[in-house]
Amino acid sequence: MSDDRARLLDPHFVSKLARLDLRARLVVEGFLTGLHRSPYHGFSVEFAEHRQYMPGDPLRHLDWKVLAKSDRKYLKQYQEETNLRAHLLVDTSASMGYGSRGVTKLDYARQLAASLAYLILGQHDAVGLFAFAEGRGEQIPARSTMGHMRPLLGLLERMKASGGTDFTASLHALAERITRRGLVVILSDLLDEPEKVAQAIHHFRHRRHEVLVFHILDPQEVAFDFDREAVYVDMEGGARVTTRPRELRDDYRARLTEWRDRLRAICIEKRADYVALTTDVPYDRALLEYLGKRSRLL
Amino acid sequence: MPLLSFLNPSFLWALPVTAIPVLLHLLSRRKLPEVPFPTTNFLRLLEPREIRRIRLREILLLILRTLALLLLVLAFARPAVTPANAVMNAAASVGLLLDESESMAAIEEHGRPRITEAKGRAASLVEASRAGDAIAIAYASRGEEPVAERGDDRVRLRRALERVEATPRPARMAAALGSLRRTLERSPLSTRELYVVSDFQRGNWPAEARLEIARAAAAGTRVYLVPVTAANLPNHAFEAIDPDVRPGPEGRGMELRARLVNHADAPSDRIAIRLREGDALVGGGDVSLRAGERRWAAMPIEPKGAGTAVSDSAAATPTRITAEMDADALPTDDEWYAVLGTPRRLRVLRIVEARGSAPPRFAALALDPSSNGASGFSVEDESPAALLTLNKARADVVLLEDVAALSGDAEARLRAFLRDGGGLVVALGPHSDPDYYGKRLFPGMIDLALQQPERVPEGGALELRARVAGHAILEGLTVGVGTPLSQARLTGLVRGAVTSPSAEIVVQTSGGLPVVVAAPRVAVFLSSLSDDWGELPFSGAFVPLVRGLVSHAARAASGAPAELVVGMPPRARLTGAPSGVIRVRGPGDYSSTATVEAEGTGYRAVALDAAPAAGFYEFDAEGHTLATVAVNLDPIESDLTALPVDSIRAGAAPAALPRIAILSSASALERHLRATRRGEELWLPLLLAAALLLAGELLLASARKLRA
Asked: Is the pTM of this model over 0.80?
C-alpha cells in the first residue's frame, strides 16, 4: 500500500478534509487502487472485456461464441451489476459524539457510511440511509444512481449526536419500514443491552435481510487509559462514577471484552456479520468486510 | 489508677497536624474533574465489587495516616504512665553526692573517663526531678565544705554538673556524706533521698563513710548507691620517691629510689621510668612488678650541676625531679614530683662490745666494704660508751650489734637521738639480754616483746622467708611473699612477738617466728649479724639485708614525703627563722602566704591555701627562696579496685537495710527513676506503632487492588 493510499484510508487524515463527498470518493478510490487484482472485480451482467482462458477458470464465463468462431477460449468479463439493496443504518445517539483523539465515533460512522455509499453506487447497487436514535430517525430510501449520492451526503452532514439509544424502538421501526430484502449495515457503538441488540438483529433476520454490524468504539473506550482520578459522567444517562482509572482498568477491560464477545456471539447466533472497529482503524478494513459480505451474497 | 502525663507537653500543640490527611482527602475529592464517558455504565457495574473496596482502602489509608501522625505527635510529647503504686508521688529533698576525685579521671575500657559516666547518671537524676523537688549536690573531694549546688532549677543544676571535672584531690567520703546528710535533715520535706554516684574505690570508703550511710538510712533517708564502674581497672603508680640520692652499686654512679605499686591482678612487665630535671632526662630504668606488688625500686640518676658530689652532710641545693612512667588507665598518678637533697652517705655508728677479741665486722663490711664510704655508707665502730655523746650531727643511724644492755644514760641519749630524727637498727645475738631489750629499751620505740634465745637442734636450720612483699628492708632482694631469702643455715634466734600493728614483721622463719621486725625509725634483727648463729653472713642475702635494715631506719628518720598531697596546704621545714612575709608560689597561678611556727630545732612554714595541683611549691621571703617542696597526688586514689558495694549496706541496722539500695547500672537507675519520677515512658512503643502504621500505609497504597 502506497503512502498516499494509506493516508486516504486513515480516519485522522480524512477527517481533515472539508467535503464529505470528496472524502468518500477519495477513500473509495484509494481503496480500489489497492484492489486491482481483486477477485471482486467484474463478474456482472454488463460486458467489460475479454480475457484469455486459463486452466482453472470457471467454464460458465467462457465465451462460447468466440470459441465457436475462432476455436479460442476467452472468458467474458462484466461490470458487476446486481439488484443488491443496501441499507446503511447510522447510530446518532449522544454516545456516538465521543472522540478522544479528534475523531468522534459519529464522524467515523458518517465517513464510513459515505464511503460505503460511494462504493455501492459505483457498483450500481442501490443504497439507502437511515439515521437512528431514540424515538426519531431520518431516512433516504435506496436508489442505485450516482445522483442519489447528493441526498445521502446531505443527510450524513446533518447528523448530530444526541439523545439515547433504543434499539428495540428505532431498529424495530426500521425493520418494519424496510420491506424489500437487502443488506442491512449497522454502524453503531451498540451501547445498549446485548439482548435488545439481539432482538433487533433478529428482527432484520426475520425479514430475511442480511445484516452486517460495524461496532464502532473509541480507542479510549477500549483501553480506559485515563491517568487521574475523576468523575466519569455517562453521556446518555448522566450517571456519575468517581474513581481512579488505575484501580479499575483491568476489570473494566475484562468487562468490555466480555461485552464485545457477547455481541459477537449474538451476531454469530443470528447469522449476522460482526466487525469490531475503533476510530483509529483505517477504513479499508470495513470496506473489505463489506465486499466480502457482498460476494457471499451474490 | 495509673496516671498519664506528658514530659514534653509543648509538643501537644502539634496535634492539629493530624488533621492534614483528612483535609487533603477532602480537598482532593472536591476538585475532581468531570469527564464525559460513554461507557460509564461499565464502571457503575464494577462499583459494587471494586469501588467499594477502593473507598474502603481510602478510608483505611486515611485512618492509617491520621493515626500515624497522631502517634508521632504523642511520641514526641513523651507520654508516661506513673504506676499507681509509685513510692514517690510527693516532692522530695534529694541529696546527690558526686565523686569527682582523682580516680574518676580513670579511662574506662570504652575510652571515656569515669567522671563522664558519673555526670551522665547525675544529670539523669536532675533531669528526672519534679516540680517541688529540692536538690542538693555535694562533691566528694570537697569534704566538709558546704553543699555546692542547691535548688530546684533544673537548668542551673544541669549546667553546674556539666562543668564538673575530675579533680586531683582524693575523695573524702565520710566528710562529704556527713555534710550532705545534715543538709537533708534540715529540709522541711519529709521524703528524703541520698544518691551516691561514685566508683566506690576501696581506699575511699573507711568505716566512717559507711557509718554516715547507715546514719542517713537510720534517719529515714532512702540511700541509693550508684556505682559507675563494674570492672577493676589495672593501674600502676608512684607512691613515693626517696629524696636521699645514694651511691649506686659498688660505689659507681648515683641511685634514686622510687616506691612503685602495681594495682592489678596481673604482673606489669618493664614499666619504663623516666627521671627529668626540668626538660632534661637525667635518669630512669625499667621496673617489673608482680600482681599487687608494692616495692621500692632503685634506678640510676645523674642530676645536673652540684648534685653529683657525695658528702657527709645535707646541702641546701635541692634538685627538682619529675618522675614519669608509661601512661595507663589513670594517667594522673603516672607522674611524681620530688625535691632531692644533695647526695650524701649514711653515717652509721656501730656499737659493739669488746669481749676479749675484736668483734667480727661482718655488718661493717657489708655496709662499707672498702672503708672509704663509696658504697654510700660510712661506718664508725664504737663501744656503748660512745652513745653518751650521741647526737644527730655525728650519725644518721645507730646499729646496736649483739650488745648485752645499755646504761641508763646511754639509753636516754639514744631515745633523744631517735626523737631528733635518727634511726636505730638492733641486731641481737647470743650476748643480748632479751629482758632488757623487750622490757626496757623497746617500749616507746617498737612494740616487740622478747623471750629467751632459741637454738635449733644439731643438724637443723631455720629458713628465712619474706612476709611483706616490697618492704624497704627487702629492697635489694628480689623476693616475693613466702620466698626464701637465702639458702644459708640459721641456727638460732631470740623468740619475739609483735604486740601492736605499728610493728611489722618483715621476715620470719618458715615456722612463723619473727626474724626482722620494723617500725618507724627502728628495725630489729632477732638473730645475729655475726656467724654465731649460722652462716648468714656468708650468704648473698646478707649485704642487701644489712643495707636494707640501715636504709629503712634512715629513711624513716627522714620523714614521709608523701604527706604533702594535693588538697592540703603545702608546708616546708625551715632551718632558720625567716624575716618578713613568706609567699608561696605553685603551679599555675597558685599564690599564697604562709604562717611560721617552731618545730623541734627548726621552724615549719604552712601555706594558708590548699595546693590545687601536683607540682613544686616555693616558699619565698624577701626575694630569696627559703624552701622548695614537692606536692603530689594522694596515692590512695591510685588503687582503682572497687569495693563490693553491697558491703556498704552491711554496716546498717537491719531496720534501715531496706532503705539502702544499689542501682548498679544506668538502666537500673533509669528504671528506678521511671518508677519513682517519670513513670513508664511510652514514646518508644508509640514510635514503633507509628512506624508500623506507616509501613502498612505504604503497602496498602502500593498494592494495585485490595485482596478480597
From this structure: no
